[in-house]
Amino acid sequence: MPRWTPKEEQKLRELVATGQSYRVIGAHLGRAGDTVFAKAKAMGLGPKPLTGERSPTWIAILRICADGIPRTVHELAMATGAARHTVECLFWERKKSKQAHVARWLAGHGAPVPYWLPVPGRSARRPSTLTPAEVSKRFRDRLRENDPIAYRAYLARATTRAALKAGKVKPQHAVVRALFGMGGTRT
């Protein structure tokens, strides 16, 4: 590798101050990210922190959420191009240091989903997870409103299953049992 020139070292100082990753800085300087990292460390610039205002992902999140609309980790990961895990870790770290909060929760079939804002504030309470009976009731209520015919069919199936389980179903006619091989007749 060619030696570093004073001009390249000055450019390295300037680029490290912008908070870009060493891989990106290396692309600007025509060198590998590991080489740039080693040189920055030797110059006393230190390792680039993954958190704080220097994080490109966090800066992008701040710009996206400048409109004050809370968003999910999934939405922010798609908008920034970062991994969902990275965005989620950034928010939980910022929540601990009171730099971010959960504006609201979306409760659905699974675990509640947080909607984040990257500003100080009081986090909304996490709703309790629904019991299977509550999930079933919500399903039935939605089905009754959206598709009454499917709801009646659902009730008929449930009633039949309950009757079968309780042993209250009348035996089939002998001809039906014979045609469909349901037992009870011998030839």
Automatic annotation (TrEMBL):
<protein>
    <submittedName>
        <fullName>Uncharacterized protein</fullName>
    </submittedName>
</protein>
